[in-house]
Each structure stands twice: as C-alpha cells, then as structure tokens.
Design a protein that fits this description.
Length: 102
C-alpha cells in the first residue's frame, strides 16, 4: 500500500492469489490485527481520493513447475508422519541441504 500512497496515480488494482486474505478483508474480520491494519490503510487511501480494487487470481495454474510442486505436496499427505524431532532452527538448513543434493 506504500506504493499506492506515494503514487500520483488515482486508480489501482491489487492482485492476490490468497482468496482467504481477500475474504477476510471483504468480511471486515477486524479481530485479525493485519486485516484491521490493512482496512485502516485502505480506508485512509480511499478517503484521500484513491480507487483501489482487490482482484483474486488463481495461483499455480498452468505453471508446470508449480503444478508439479502441488502434486508432490498432495501426494505427501498420504505418507506416514515421522516421529523424528528436529529443532525449528535446523529445519531450513536441513531442507536446503536435501534440496541441493536432489
């Protein structure tokens, strides 16, 4: 929203692939702090004469590498859950190492 605030333009379209975020904004779920802050800034900008349209775009659609990632993630849901315990701080380096080896 900083770009909208600083721009001399008056009309904007914000594209998001997060339908849940757009629904939260559209439903004014102000109990969620980030939603409250976003609505507050949106209101300030529209009161200053800016027009902002929120637009949902589907994610990962027809992008082959993303489609493969989605398929792999969905197939992993059927795998057994491991009892391996790993501290959160070690998770990213472990995944990075595995990824580089693959």
């Amino acid at each position: 929203m900083t770009l909208v605030r600083c721009s001399k333009e008056k009309s904007f379209i914000v594209f998001s692939d997060s339908v849940s975020s757009l629904e939260a904004l559209g439903g004014f779920r102000i109990k969620i702090h980030l939603v409250y802050c976003t609505i507050k800034v949106y209101t300030q900008l529209t009161n200053s004469g800016k027009t902002i349209v929120m637009c949902w775009i589907p994610s990962h659609v027809n992008i082959s590498s993303n489609e493969r990632a989605d398929t792999a993630a969905k197939s992993a849901l059927s795998l057994p859950i491991t009892s391996m315990k790993i501290p959160a701080g070690e998770l990213t380096p472990s995944i990075s190492k595995f990824y580089m080896n693959e």
